[in-house]
Amino acid sequence: MVRVNAILRHPRFIKEIRRVEEIERGRVFCGHGIDHLMDVARIAFILSRESGGAEDKELVYAAALLHDVGRARQYEDDTPHEQESAAIAAEILPECGFDEHETALILDAILAHRTTGGGGKPGFAGLMYKADKASRRCYDCAASRECNWGIKNTALEY
Question: Which three-class secondary structure state does DSSP give residue 150?
Answer without folding.
Answer: coil
